[in-house]
Specification:
- The complex is a heterodimer.
- Helix content of chain A is about 70%, strand content about 0%.
- Chain A contains 7 helices and no strands.
- Chain A has helices spanning about 1-10, 15-35, 40-50, 60-85, 100-115, 120-130, 130-155.
- In chain A, helix 3 packs across helix 4 (about 60-85) and helix 6 runs antiparallel to helix 7.
- Chain B is an all-alpha fold.
- In chain B, about 60% of the residues are buried.
- Chain B starts with 13 loop residues before the first helix and ends in a 13-residue tail after the last helix.
- Classes of the chains: A mainly alpha, B mainly alpha.
- Chains A and B meet through helix 2, helix 3, helix 4, helix 5 and helix 6 of A and helix 1, helix 2, helix 3, helix 4 and helix 5 of B.
Chain lengths: ~160, ~160
Amino acid sequence: MAGLVSTLFPNGIAQYAVGGALVGLGVVVIYVGTGIVAGASTFLESTLSYVSNVPRLNRAKHLASRDWRVVFTLGIVLGAAVYALTLGPGGWTTDVQPWRLFAGGILVGIGTRLGKGCTSGHGVCGVGSVSRTSLTNVATFLVVAVGTAQLVAALGVSP
Amino acid sequence: MSDAPTDDGGDPRFFGVVLLGGLIFGFGLGYSQMARPEVVLDFLQFQDFGLLFVMGGAAVVTGIAFALLADTGRRAPLTGRAYAKRLKTYDRNVLVGGTIFGVGWGLSGICPGAAYASLGVGNYPILWALAGMFVGAYLQGYWRSVRSDDEDDVAATTAD
């Protein structure tokens, strides 16, 4: 049993569970104070409304939320910086290749907006709401992401 | 457009609460290791299932808040907004978008919130991913404006 656990969770589960609970707590603080269910990805669209006239990016709900979404995102950046400088290992950089980050980022940007949410909007808030729409979306992206990552690795792309 | 109502409702504490929530959210993403694309890719390649506890732990915490507050008739102090769950309408885009997102997440190992957090730890190569996400968000906004695709407009109480 211990062997199985260490195989499935070679780095334990504490850091993941505690980190996840803190992510949830951040959402809850905003929810209790404002009634807003905050996800991370609408920021991408609502922030573009400052510089673009594309109607889809300038919907009323984006214009109404774009200011606080900038503040929320700055909070995420600063919060992670505080982690890195206190409990964390300081700064670090990824070795994943830039083309993977950029091409993957484009698809993430399209998919999260088309699918009405991301890992936080659907994966945390939607699953926490036991929303069938969100559960369907999460199941879909998890399966597809597993297949994609395994395929890319099988093709010898690393990191 | 500057005269349009905004979500903050004019309460000066609103942005402070949003900032505090963001700080905790970002600290948690850093602590959870999800801001590292390598950790996400390890998870997707079945080498470390710990990431299940990140999304799961977060969903349990938000789920408790929803269970206690949502649809009770109570309203948030800073906005007067009624507490509700995050329920979005289902349509084909939920599947198509989820599939595209899955390919992107599986290729890059990074999602929006984790990308913001990753920037905060000084991981400057993640700017490639953030640039891509803005390009992707713009492209879908442009395409859908051309097509007048408004099928997923929902109440302003939900926000991803």
